[in-house]
């Protein structure tokens, strides 16, 4: 069953209505008002119970739970960054080896192109 929530402008209270009517409960139009009042009181009591449960939770438990969540996110981010760093470092080492081959005349790449690639790779590692 779906609920529709709207603000009653006369009483400034939230009202809850069912979107799909249930014939064996509603029956007649006069009983619909009674159903809405019952539904409103039921939903209101459930919401109040939820807020009471939320209020009863100590702040330290909420803080420690949030701290653990943030810590796991940060650890995952650190692990990802470390793997990226290792990949970039490996690329840099390969480029440096290619520079050595270029100096020896064994590489097919020019020294200026390799120098630019090495500078770019070093800049990515530093950032």
Order of helices and strands: EEHHHH
| Principal-axis shape | rod-shaped
Largest sheet: 2 strands, antiparallel
Q: Could you list the spans in which at least 5 consecutive residues all have pLDDT below 50? A: 21-30
**CA(first)-CA(last) distance:** 54 Å
Going across the biggest sheet, name each strand in turn: 1-2
Work out the number of β strands.
Answer: 2
What percent of the residues sit in helical stretches (DSSP H or I)?
over 70%
What's the structural domain tally? 2
Counting helices, strands and paired strands, the structural category is mainly alpha
Number of helices: 4
Task: Report the radius of gyration as a whole number of Å.
Answer: 33 Å
* Beta-strand residue percentage: 5-15%
Overall mean pLDDT stands at 77
Description:
The protein has 127 residues and is mainly alpha-helical. The chain has two domains: 3-56, no CATH class; 59-126, no CATH class. The chain is built from four helices and two strands. The protein has helices at residues 23-26, 29-56, 59-104, 111-126, and strands at residues 3-8, 13-18. Strands 1-2 form a two-stranded antiparallel sheet. Helix 3 (59-104) packs antiparallel against helix 4 (111-126). The protein is rod-shaped, with a radius of gyration of 33 Å. The chain starts with a strand and ends with a helix. Residues 21-30 have low confidence and may be disordered.
């Amino acid at each position: 069953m779906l609920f529709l929530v709207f603000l009653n402008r006369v009483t400034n209270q939230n009202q809850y209505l069912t979107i799909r009517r249930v014939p064996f409960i509603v029956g007649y139009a006069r009983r619909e008002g009674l159903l809405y009042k019952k539904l409103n009181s039921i939903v209101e009591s459930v919401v109040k119970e939820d807020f009471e449960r939320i209020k009863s939770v100590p702040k330290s438990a909420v803080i420690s739970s949030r701290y653990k969540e943030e810590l796991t996110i940060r650890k995952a981010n650190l692990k990802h960054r470390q793997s990226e760093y290792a990949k970039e470092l490996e690329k840099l080492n390969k480029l440096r080896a290619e520079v050595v081959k270029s100096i020896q005349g064994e590489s097919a790449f020019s020294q200026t192109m390799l120098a630019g690639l090495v500078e770019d790779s070093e800049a990515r590692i530093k950032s």
